[in-house]
């Protein structure tokens, strides 16, 4: 299961810059989940010299060199290497693997962190390497043991390919299995009734995990066969304060908003106000991308399919004013071009998903401003009918009374409250991730999904056809998974798991259901350090439901250890305050045409970057090549700013995976 609003923004800016961690739609509307993700049949199986199984994604090139299998991406120069090693431990295996791989990249190791025991592999460690801003690459090596033999997976990728080929990378990771290993499957098995003892196991897992991961508060809900078995919370709304979280506590739920937005679109399909195959330019003539051909191809179904070839792009609205109108979404889209062919590969992109909600709102209420139309349409098509009484897009209303403050890690490794001003920028693109909700409300939504569109009193809320069209595969996200319309489906365990999650600033959360077993869960967390629970809690649920092999606890244990090490590494790497020399090297003001002004203020020892909508002090970090990065000293900080000079003017450059923004010195 994979879903993100902010990618790796939960990690420190240091680690975000160093490590890598995924359309059809032209055919008839399916009423049930597709039997397999689109395109997976074209993946080519193989084995290493030691007999370990791997998959070569379609379009990749296979190169063999003695004990090394190299999988090269369609974009030359990015590779994943699988290396059989004869070493006695993980450190020696990685050293041997790099030698056999014969990389020309200079290695600058940072640290190594543990990896959970999963998929037949044991005692894994992931090795992280520092790269320069100029290289725009991500390097990692993961050593894993099977029996008494070690194998190493090296990922040597450009940032752009890492962002663009996430589904292919997921296929490689999932498809790499030890010799003789048989995947655990729950196909054809009946789930246990979640009695008091099994519910208690899940509760203990949450309590133990949140302490290990330093998450202040977690709210969860569990439903089976239409009955709510548990709805409650553990911990507190804000670190250091006594007010507890519970099932009524509101969280800013990030991309958990997406399936609610597509539910609204499905209601409008039922009402014949639009159709899944309606061209978006017909529904909203002002809709346009920088690429005219792709603009013409996009139908309503494609707005939340992650299949259009548009890349991940968040910084345009992360740095915008908090009161930006809904039209900022379309301003961003007008300068976006696909980086892969339409329908060719999964690329998760928030601006076009936000447009999906606004297109729906406009279809329902064409006489209103786009944002207002969306809000009212969501209220009368989704929140109201489902009884989601507390869910809202109104930040002022949400941030009164029982709501969770969000927490992230600073570059110094401290857990801190996320600056509230940063949350509000989500409002302008709210159909993709700006809803506030709680466990009680989201359980009502999950119960309706499990009931095929029926409400608890037996009334039909939506047709099953329109509801389940959202489930159908639009694009593959891995060997055994796909993305529909704002929904993930994973069949790797032999039983379909539908879900969507959210990651942003200091929030992590999931809505999950198993349609074959009538089971659904909601988990909401108020800290980015709970990232691993996005997969570990669903895994624990499977273990409890089917007496599955124990893996979830190992996932949390490894993640908690890794997080402590990464935070310590980040703390050692930054210089804060930056010092007089570094402060003097900065221009007083910079400007980027898309992200706006960046003002530099120095008072005493502290230097502050002021972006207008929010501001924060900065630290400095020097790279191996002497380049200086400036890191914003805030919880869940954005990517670092790299200092440089262009055409005689000082610059600060910030990059995500596929986009580069240069702030140039301004007068």
From TrEMBL:
InterPro entries assigned to the protein according to its UniProt record, in alphabetical order: Beta-lactam-related (IPR001466), Beta-lactam/transpept-like (IPR012338), Diverse_Enzym_Activities (IPR050789)
Regions annotated as coiled coil: none
Domain Beta-lactamase-related: 203-533
Keywords per UniProt: Hydrolase, Signal
GO MF, one annotated term: hydrolase activity
Segment forming the signal sequence: 1-22
Keyword Metal-binding carried by entry: no
Matches recorded under SUPFAM superfamilies: beta-lactamase/transpeptidase-like (SSF56601)
Listed name of the protein: Serine hydrolase
Taxon lineage: Bacteria, Pseudomonadati, Pseudomonadota, Alphaproteobacteria, Caulobacterales
